[in-house]
Amino acid sequence: MPAMHMPPFCQLHNDLPALLPGTCLVQARFDPAQLQAEDFGRCNVPPVRGVAKRQAEHLAGRLCARSALHGLCGQALIPGRDADGVPIWPAGISGSISHGHGQAAALVALSRDWRSLGIDLEQQLPPERATRLAAEILTTNELQRSGGLSPAEFAQRVTLTFSLKESLFKALFPLVRRRFYFHDAELLEVDGEQARLRLLLDLHHEWPSGSELDGHYRSQADSLLSLVAI
Length: 230
Hints:
This protein has helices at 39-42, 52-73, 127-137, 140-145, 151-176; strands spanning 10-13, 23-30, 80-81, 87-88, 93-100, 103-110, 117-123, 185-191, 194-199, 212-219, 223-229. It has 230 residues and is an alpha+beta fold. The chain has two domains: 10-114, CATH 3.90.470; 120-229, CATH 3.90.470.20. The strands form three sheets. A five-stranded antiparallel beta sheet has the order 7-11-10-9-8, covered by helices on one side.
């Protein structure tokens, strides 16, 4: 097996507690300004088109996935991408990748344990921006349930709702192959680092309107990591 080359633009963090039993999580911080054109080839990752930020996000996400797969099953593999942009994982593996704002993460598991995974890594929205975006992210019921929150608490709720719905999409889209949007699901409750979401449309005979799914999240120093696992 070729050496797992790690370019200087990206620093991995592998010693992270699992979000769920049977999963392997790897996160990274990266600096697009330090990305070199040769880094893709040295890492055996096919390059992607786009500006340096887009290229760095993609490579950092794939390096997280490679390290997570190595930790899970001892194989340092790079997932490909299908026509919808969904990662193509090795047989018997499920996983998810997230990246943005100089951070990336990948979570993998054996598909016999977890059929599908969706993770999302977000920076905390400031109160002013959260207020501007709230109506695009939150349903009418979610807005009503958030009525008594302080501006800082409301910003945290908008960020969490955004992230969990992103994770929900990533977990379900590979199974149903149908796009859905922020107002097609709602956050019902939050308890500690656990959450409960409900679909508001029929996605599939297995996932009709009213289906409820568990979410998980972890607050970090300057970001929020959320997960929906099936």
